[in-house]
């Protein structure tokens, strides 16, 4: 009897321990994924649902395996890891709920094709922020065009090596996936001394980039509306306040399913707008100012252009979850190649054609250069897209903050912001509203699209796309790397670091000057 009681207590303790491990593991994986929904990852919310359902199925399988026969062997943690072919050991389903979870975690789990994955990457790197690229050519000339190509090559390469860090070789010599997210990779690099330091650094970078993206949406909304209706007695700051009032309901969001559908339509509309801008520029081909494009650099403003270009290519943060949801992960490299080649060609042509059309009169947001007859229509569509895209990075930032500060078990810094019934507490809702107001205040005091975009690209964009992937690749796989891979990683880290520091300093100086000017006014 004592032996039986001791066995039951041991099983209960093991179950509680594994539940806690599963919850923490799932939380970190989801944090790494949710931050993927950055500024233009529309449609990827669907992949988020699939990923979360799959993880819930895996956690249910772990718990069910403990409720089986006492003599049954508990599967090892490595056996329960994310298996891309769905052939991992599955315990027998003893209930209807377990059966549902088994279907989600096994071969019945829906996957996305390489074309669907490419669509998500394309949304991320060819969104509305390409409207600032002609301004980068203004201060960089042909070197700016080269940088657009160089950034595409480097971001494609770092995306591939980041995915390589998810895999390791097992005892049988097979390459298996042992990590699920950017955060997992960062934690593995800092283990065993600081097992959570890397993840916290990545989370901070995610939050900064997501919040800055929200600020940029408010800035661009105010800027576009002000330049669309210059005769109205409404300032750019007032337009930003109106836009924020429209965005305030984002604080009540529980999911992004409905928002992602509208955002997808707005993305399609944005591609149409890009075509219209290019068509207008082509209609003025006879007046193109080829002599204005030179091999020169505006030493003071070109570093800001570097940040603008880098920020337009940011997609690394959600690539691990995207690759994990692909039907055939072997097609990931090919998908990265054609998406970045297409982005490079389209961005280069768009930036060059737009700059040739307006030359030295090129503005921070290129649609402001359009004639007043069509500018208002184009800008209204862009404002609608910005407002409907705002909830994506906002919701992702909120989830990372809530899971890091309020829902991290005993390691949480503050009490849980959700009640026992799962509803958000009033003070939690107040904090969400405060985050919306914070984006407004930043947009009001620093209403400079190019400076904010350059600062974000130099700080978090270069870090997440250049510095961290190359550093993690060297740290985790340095024994298996060929000499040219080591050379590429070191070169990218050094060049990325120099560009990041230079762009950050110049962008910060410009922002401080703009902040002082606005404060005096």
Automatic annotation (TrEMBL):
<keyword id="KW-0532">Neurotransmitter transport</keyword>
<keyword id="KW-1133">Transmembrane helix</keyword>
<comment type="similarity">
    <text>Belongs to the amino acid/polyamine transporter 2 family.</text>
</comment>
<feature type="transmembrane region" description="Helical">
    <location>
        <begin position="486"/>
        <end position="505"/>
    </location>
</feature>
<dbReference type="Pfam" id="PF01490">
    <property type="entry name" value="Aa_trans"/>
</dbReference>
<dbReference type="GO" id="GO:0030659">
    <property type="term" value="C:cytoplasmic vesicle membrane"/>
</dbReference>
<dbReference type="GO" id="GO:0060077">
    <property type="term" value="C:inhibitory synapse"/>
</dbReference>
<feature type="domain" description="Amino acid transporter transmembrane">
    <location>
        <begin position="111"/>
        <end position="507"/>
    </location>
</feature>
<protein>
    <recommendedName>
        <fullName>Vesicular inhibitory amino acid transporter</fullName>
    </recommendedName>
</protein>
<dbReference type="GO" id="GO:0006836">
    <property type="term" value="P:neurotransmitter transport"/>
</dbReference>
<feature type="transmembrane region" description="Helical">
    <location>
        <begin position="143"/>
        <end position="167"/>
    </location>
</feature>
<dbReference type="InterPro" id="IPR013057">
    <property type="entry name" value="AA_transpt_TM"/>
</dbReference>
<dbReference type="GO" id="GO:0098793">
    <property type="term" value="C:presynapse"/>
</dbReference>
<dbReference type="GO" id="GO:0015179">
    <property type="term" value="F:L-amino acid transmembrane transporter activity"/>
</dbReference>
<feature type="transmembrane region" description="Helical">
    <location>
        <begin position="334"/>
        <end position="356"/>
    </location>
</feature>
<feature type="transmembrane region" description="Helical">
    <location>
        <begin position="302"/>
        <end position="322"/>
    </location>
</feature>
<feature type="transmembrane region" description="Helical">
    <location>
        <begin position="452"/>
        <end position="474"/>
    </location>
</feature>
<comment type="function">
    <text>Antiporter that exchanges vesicular protons for cytosolic 4-aminobutanoate or to a lesser extend glycine, thus allowing their secretion from nerve terminals. The transport is equally dependent on the chemical and electrical components of the proton gradient. May also transport beta-alanine. Acidification of GABAergic synaptic vesicles is a prerequisite for 4-aminobutanoate uptake.</text>
</comment>
<dbReference type="GO" id="GO:0051939">
    <property type="term" value="P:gamma-aminobutyric acid import"/>
</dbReference>
<feature type="transmembrane region" description="Helical">
    <location>
        <begin position="429"/>
        <end position="446"/>
    </location>
</feature>
<keyword id="KW-0966">Cell projection</keyword>
<dbReference type="GO" id="GO:0140800">
    <property type="term" value="F:gamma-aminobutyric acid:proton antiporter activity"/>
</dbReference>
<keyword id="KW-0813">Transport</keyword>
<keyword id="KW-0472">Membrane</keyword>
<keyword id="KW-0968">Cytoplasmic vesicle</keyword>
<feature type="transmembrane region" description="Helical">
    <location>
        <begin position="207"/>
        <end position="226"/>
    </location>
</feature>
<keyword id="KW-0812">Transmembrane</keyword>
<feature type="transmembrane region" description="Helical">
    <location>
        <begin position="376"/>
        <end position="401"/>
    </location>
</feature>
<feature type="transmembrane region" description="Helical">
    <location>
        <begin position="262"/>
        <end position="282"/>
    </location>
</feature>
<dbReference type="GO" id="GO:0015187">
    <property type="term" value="F:glycine transmembrane transporter activity"/>
</dbReference>
<dbReference type="GO" id="GO:0005774">
    <property type="term" value="C:vacuolar membrane"/>
</dbReference>
<keyword id="KW-0770">Synapse</keyword>
